[in-house]
Amino acid sequence: MRAYTKWMLNFDTAFLYNNNLKVVQAKEKRIKGKPPVPKATLYFFPEGGDAIAGLRTRMAFMAEDQYAQPVNVSGVVKDNDGNKVADLLVQHDGMGSFYFIPDASKTYTATWKDGQGETHTTNLPAIHNNGVSLSIQASKDEKLFAIERSENVSDNLKELHIVATMYQQTVYLANISLVDKTMISGAIPTTYFPSGILQITVLDKNMEPIAERIAYVKSKDDTFHPEVGFSKLSFDKRGANELIVNVLDSVPANLSVSVTDASIGTDSSNNLVSDMLLSSQVKGKIYQPYYYFSSDSEKVNKDLDLVMLTHGWRRFNWEKIINKEPLNITYPKDSTYLTLSGKVFGATPAQLAASGTLFAILKSKTDTTNKFIMLPLNSDGTFSDPNAIFFDSLNVYYKFAGKKNYLDNTEITFMPDRLPSPGHIPLNFNDIVKARDYDTSGLAGSQHLYDQYWALAHFQTENALADVTVKTRQKSPTEKLDDEYTSGMFKDDNGYTFDVMNDISAQGAMNVFSYLQGRVAGLQISNPMADPPSLSWRGGTPSLFLDEIPVSDASQISNMSMSDIAMIKIYRPPFMGGFGGSPGGAIAVYTRKGADVAVDSKTGMPHKIIAGYTAIREFYSPNYLSLSQDRDKFDARSTLYWNSLIMTTPQNHELRFKFFNNDFTKAYRIILEGMNDNGQFTHIEKVIQ
Fold first, then answer.
1. Does 254 have pLDDT greater than 70?
2. What is the pLDDT of residues 131-177, one digit of tens each?
3. Angle of CA points 606, 608, 614, to nearest 5°
4. Chain segment 267-315, per-residue pLDDT in tens
5. What is the distance between the alpha carbons of residues 125 and 45, in angstroms, rounded to a whole number?
6. Over pLDDT 90: what percentage of the chain?
7. For residues 517 and 419, what is the distance between their CA atoms, to the nearest angstrom?
8. Cβ–Cβ under 8 Å, residues 191 and 141
9. What is the mean pLDDT of residues 377-405?
């Protein structure tokens, strides 16, 4: 799952929120055999960025396999004369560090063994003849720094500047003179800093960065601690329970809570606290990040400092910053809800000026009353009403003002500024593969429950339908379209089929390519409104077909109105129905025909359906006190209660929630997460048995 805002797409997409959701498969679809053999790789990271000859250097290292999982390694570091320099000893999750004094005339190599006992060699980074080093030591309420230079350095490395930033704000700035000495130390007070990454950069006299280090600041004020427990507890079959959530602080809070079967696996090593305060601030993948918030012990803090040394070290482009070059901002800030907007195509500036306004009637599923609004038209045909906020699908009836109506010769597109799908941002295949669990007790519990549930469900179905003979099944709308429109090799099911006629979101798309953007895994569509757009799939270019006739000019398809299209089929590479086997796959567009052609009624106002926010659905929880509740079916719910929107206030800070046990659970796992109006986070996990 990937989540982001428009504004985030202006910057490094490595910081988009990603999470893996596990799905329990049927037996025949589960991963079989042994997991792949880990292939370990060892990386070295000099503190400050470079190893300088003659200066005592801390060299951090990290060992991980091909799926970014930590590997326990051991070995030694030797110079090219065979002299031992240091031992490689893992301190935590494949990470460690050692100190040495580099010699520019020597090279250094690590010889190490991975978890399988295989021997490897890895070269350490090159040694710089001279330069400036930066080292950081953590203290209780401050970060101690030491800056040291080589003896023979140029004048620009003798007058330095140190800058510390946090959340894009400057928190420390000092000028440093190393003209008469080679080393200086200082302290950055962090008592009143929030939790997060502190980035410390050393710049030379000309404001060029020469050393950089990130450190982590922990603040006890970034979390709060509500209470969660039971006022009524029962492990009986379908027993009644009452859960209490009490926020002791007099600050409004927004929380979510879940109660699940404790035997079902869960991974809370990455949660709201670690996501917001650590994982979202670095590029590298952190293994079990919540461990670093489990305590404030010296070991945990030292392990956290290793993460700072080995993850996400990067330099700002200080040249652009100093020259005040503007950022390339493509997407505006997300400052409002989904509001009504659009654009008129096909009308001349004179016609737009004559009309001036678009009259619209808004009808929604949730509101039985109709809303009448007037949308002023800009000279380019665009219109917007920031006050027309909607949360579900919206029916918009519209008409131009003025004596003449140009609806017959124009096309109106609504919501052209929807949040784009970042189809050009590739998913990390390693993230997908490493999410697979081959052998864990939690996964085994989930699979056992799955098998038990389906075995009983099939038993009940077979008994209830013992005398029923099923002869056929009704075809889906997509299957009917496929039968009606496709022929020959185009009936191939090795791909994706989109029923455009029955997809309300299709009418809001600018063209076929903007509609397809982000909908097909692996199909990359860049600049869908360009002529021609950029198409790529597995290294090749997909072939284009219109009503099964090859199309060489993509503009023939991109200029089509979505209301004229019945179906789109995407064929995975290679597509044998295309010329030369279409090694890049194929995109086939089918126009409406016969009874499927949209009726152009002259009576009444034209209208379009706009897809809004998905309506909030309440989590199903049975009430076994009700006589209408179906009591015969086996209750195999693994999640017994879930509430994603718990709002507390100073006056109403203790809330109670009722739920019923399933048919077998003997231990509950409670997870409570959320944040309050002060921006503090909480994560509480308990097992009650």
1. yes
2. 999 999 988 789 999 999 999 899 999 999 999 999 889 999 999 99
3. 155
4. 788 899 999 999 888 877 899 999 999 998 999 999 999 999 998 655 4
5. 8
6. 41
7. 12
8. yes
9. 82
Report the distance separating Cα 643 and Cα 624, nearest Å: 19
Query: Taking Cα atoms as reference points, which of 533, 534, 555, 557 lies closest to residue 545?
Result: 557
Question: Tokens at residue 172, please?
Answer: 């420390």
Say how far apart CA 541 and CA 565 lie, in whole Å: 22
Phi, then psi, of 153 in degrees rounded to 5: -125, 160
Length, in residues, of the chain: 689
Contact 596, 566 (CB under 8 A): yes
* CA–CA distance, 621 with 630 (Å, rounded to integer): 12
| Token couple for 360 | 């619209």
pLDDT above 60: residue 422:
no
Rg over alpha carbons for the chain, rounded to the nearest Å, is 31
638 within 8 A of 264, measured Cβ to Cβ: yes
Q: Higher confidence at residue 507 or residue 569?
A: 569
Q: Residue type for 437, please? A: D
Residue 600's pLDDT is: 47
DSSP string, 409-471: G-EEEE-TTPPPP-TTS---HHHHHHT--SS-HHHHHHHHHHHHHHHHHHHHHHHHTTT----
Q: Is the bond preceding 416 in cis, omega lying within 30 degrees of 0?
A: no
* Residue 224 in this model has a pLDDT that exceeds 50: yes
Structure tokens at 586: 């194929």
Where does residue 68 rank: exposed (0-12), middle (13-18), buried (19+ CB within 10 A)?
middle
Tracing tokens 């079967």 back to the chain, one arrives at: 261
Higher-confidence residue: 92 or 349? 92
Residue with structure tokens 């997909």? 542
Find residue 173's DSSP bridge partners. Answer: 163
User: SS3 string of 468-485?
Assistant: CCCCCCCCCHHHHHHHHH
The contacts of residue 47 (CB under 8 Å, 6+ apart) are 57, 58, 59, 60, 133, 134, 135, 136, 213, 309
User: In the structure encoding, which two tokens stand for residue 351, read together?
Assistant: 């016609």
Residue the block writes with tokens 């017959």: 408
Q: What are phi and psi of 120, to 5 degrees?
A: -135, 160
pLDDT band at 77 (very low <50, low <70, confident <90, very high): very high
Q: Residue 567's closest CA among 506, 494, 489? A: 506
Instruction: List all residues 6 or more positions away from 621 whose beta carbon is below 8 Å from its beta carbon.
Output: 640, 641, 659, 660
69 backbone dihedrals φ, ψ, rounded to 5°: -95, 140
Task: Report d(CA 178, CA 667) in Å as an integer.
Answer: 64
The residue-averaged pLDDT of 430-458 equals 63
